[in-house]
Design brief:
- The structure is a single chain.
- The chain is α+β, with helices and mostly antiparallel strands.
- It folds into two domains: about 1-100, Beta-Lactamase; about 110-195, no CATH class.
- The protein contains six helices and nine strands.
- The chain has helices at about 1-20, 40-50, 80-100, 140-145, 160, 165-175; strands at about 25-30, 35-40, 55-60, 70-75, 110-115, 125-130, 135-140, 180-185, 190-195.
- The strands form two sheets. Strands 7-6-5-9-8 form a five-stranded antiparallel β-sheet. Strands 2-1-4-3 form a four-stranded antiparallel β-sheet.
- The chain is elongated, with a radius of gyration of 19 Å.
- The relative contact order is 0.12.
Length: about 200
């Protein structure tokens, strides 16, 4: 499963940031089935004594049909740090979402955009992926929020959201421009943007 492959390195990094032997990071599907766990010592202890975690925080992963990233603590040590844990969990989820969208094999062109130029190129940027006919294929949570787009992407094309010619975006991507260009939505919102083509497409 592509989600597990892309999520595991980020989950391992999050576990290292927690630096707590009682805390583990879990990836679960919408039915609550645990797909992956980082922090095996805590898991073994929980299974041995049959107790539930003292603290459990879950954040949904956008675009995964209901999968969750969970931080579970089997001791009371992190209860006072729950806001910090939730913030780290949220950032990690956004990184996973970014990886999922960026690596979507159905994509032809990736549009990276944000109102803050400094966020371009990082996991917190807005990212939309289009097929060759300018149809939306996938977007991350940031893009969905900025564009106020729901889950039904199949009917949307690039020019339904952006005030730009599709061939211009393809041209920018073909030139591999490093400098961001100005991009405006149909509602008049202004962003900085870059475009890239999927690897293997010239």
């Amino acid at each position: 499963m592509r989600l597990m492959t892309l999520a595991m390195p980020v989950m391992a990094n999050l576990y290292q940031q927690f630096a707590s032997p009682s805390l583990e990071v879990q990836l679960a599907n919408r039915d609550g089935e645990i797909l992956r766990i980082v922090g095996a010592a805590a898991q073994r202890r929980a299974m041995a004594d049959g107790t539930l975690p003292v603290l459990s925080i879950a954040v949904p992963i956008h675009g995964t049909d209901g999968c969750l990233l969970i931080a579970a603590d089997h001791a009371a040590t992190s209860r006072e740090n729950s806001d910090h844990i939730r913030a780290l969990l949220q950032t990690t989820v956004e990184m996973i979402e970014h990886r999922l969208v960026e690596s979507d094999e159905r994509g032809f062109l990736r549009l990276h955009f944000h109102a803050r130029q400094a966020l371009l190129g990082g996991p917190l940027e807005a990212l939309a992926v289009f097929d060759q006919d300018s149809r939306f294929v996938a977007i991350n949570r940031t893009a969905a929020t900025l564009l106020a787009v729901g889950g039904d992407l199949a009917r949307l094309r690039c020019n339904d959201c952006f005030d730009v010619q599709w061939l211009n975006l393809v041209g920018y991507a073909s030139l591999r421009l490093i400098e961001p260009f100005p991009l405006r939505t149909c509602d008049g919102e202004r962003f900085f943007a870059r475009t890239t083509l999927r690897q293997g497409i010239v």
